């Protein structure tokens, strides 16, 4: 039996985007049509807008689009929960009714045309396709510098992320089924999706400027996102404290020896050596103990996430045929 074409759902978070949505919605629709006409995706493919508790006319615009064209679908969060949660809500809404999802911002910054290459890559066997910015020429120097430092810091701190990849990516429904077993509340999708595994690929594109409206990611929000990314993916900061504790203990030990030698040579006033010994000893022990306690807290933290312990991606026998939902 010939496989039918995959159903694609575009997942698009929107927060106060009344200026840009009327501009980009037809572009998404056009791309969907083009992919369907090229025979890459099913006609049952959809564009899912996730309204993230907007305070402007965004939801009305989405509702009107959905009324006018059944290819548009909208869901609305009860309040603003942030970009990551909006994308997650959309992916979970889509995963049972489609074969592939592509998440993309609604402001037209990410090259919509790259979707074709993503779907090609999926058809060639990749289950996750990361959209990677090949250049940031349109960003200001400041935005580029802070954004690139962000990726470097994350990797140094043990949160593995794909360099210059944000949240423009294709994920198959199969991967989303596995991802649904990650129950954590603090989510950082671009660091978590690589944890799920499966065969992945990258598609490069040039990031453009926003087509209308303004960014909701000032430096403060980006720093918060970096902090969230590090603390939700890695316990490396704790290991750094433990290492620091080791160094302080060593220095303390040397300090104790030094104080004793000085006392023996007699170059000290009464009481000095014992004071220095106590301070060095306690300083080292305290820092080291904090690190050890931290290691346990880190383990508890990881356990509390209840992540899946293994995910099977391939079998030489299939308990069920892989088939499209279309
Ligand atoms: N967004 C969202 N909730 C928020 C903030 C942003 O859903 O609380 C959406 C926004 O509508 C856009 C995407 O996330 O589709 C990226 O936001 P933005 O373009 O403002 O960020 P930038 O591209 O400047 O980093
Ligand atoms: Mg943007």
Summarize the structure.
With 326 residues, this protein is α/β, with parallel strands linked by helices.
Describe the structure.
With 326 residues, the chain is an alpha/beta fold. It has 2 domains: 8-233 and 308-325, Spore Coat Polysaccharide Biosynthesis Protein SpsA, Chain A (Alpha-Beta Complex), CATH 3.90.550; 236-305. It is 49% helix and 14% strand. The chain contains 10 helices and 7 strands. A 7-stranded mixed β-sheet has the order 3-2-1-4-6-5-7, with helices on both faces. β2 (46-51), α2 (58-68) and β3 (72-76) form a beta-alpha-beta unit. α5 (141-156) packs parallel to α8 and α9 packs antiparallel against α10 (272-304). The longest helix has 33 residues, at 272-304. It is elongated. The model has no long low-confidence stretch (mean pLDDT 87). It binds uridine-5'-diphosphate and magnesium ion. Uridine-5'-diphosphate is lined by residues 13-15, 17, 52, 80, 82-83, 86, 105-107, 109, 215-217.
